[in-house]
Amino acid sequence: xxxxxxxxxxxxxxxxSYQQSGGSLDILKKAxxxxxxxxxxxxxxxxxxxxxxxxxxxxxxxxPDAGEVFIGGTATSKLxxxxxxxxRRTEIGFVYQFHHLLPEFSAQENVVMPQLxxxxxxxxxxxxxxxxxxxxxxxxxxxxxxxxxSGGEQQRVAIARAVANAPRLLLADEPTGNLDPGxxxxxxxxxxxxxxxxxxxxxxxTHNLELAGQMDRxxxxxxxxxxxxx
Length: 230
Ligand code: ADP
Ligand code: MG
Description:
By secondary structure, this protein is an alpha/beta fold. Helix content is 34%, strand content 27%. The two termini are 35 Å apart. The relative contact order is 0.20. Magnesium ion binds next to helix 1.
């Protein structure tokens, strides 16, 4: 009998509010949401509606006030910080609007680093980094430092770093928001082909409706809920 498929990410009745001087700002209210392995989902919502909050809660960077976040079927709310960090390192990759690469290290070293932190040997980590960067079209840029790369190249290195430990879930917060339209499109296509080739699940916050239109599914945040668009 086939194994039942487990969602890469499952949010169940998640609440998240911020306390402000005027009272409580309720961003997520009993939000339910799942992403399946191999799915590429766009998160499209106006600024201030809670895209980053959703990504932070899904990525175990913030605790929900209520509800449960399952990563690959594992409930995370009652885990201690060490266990949450372990899941974050091994199961989840992040890409931000600004690359946050280490400026003193080469592209390859930036991708090697998270693998060493996870405990992989240096030779193996270097090989994987070179393969990933090659896949992302950066085979000729392994030794370049971030400052010697274009914005689009920097962002592709950040994508390679995010998937260096072969996570099951990739979370990206407006990853092409800082790039010109042509570069955005190229970075996005590279990201898409990587997701397709690796079978990971990806949730990508973007304001770019053209790019969102090419993903498998589009969701938004409305009234604290995650809702399907179109
Ligand atoms: P988006 O990414 O869609 O622009 P965010 O998730 O960053 O939205 O923020 C949603 C709302 O929550 C915004 O109004 C923001 O000001 C507020 N917010 C976010 N983080 C905090 C925080 N740490 N403390 C108080 N308010 C916050
Ligand atoms: Mg945001």
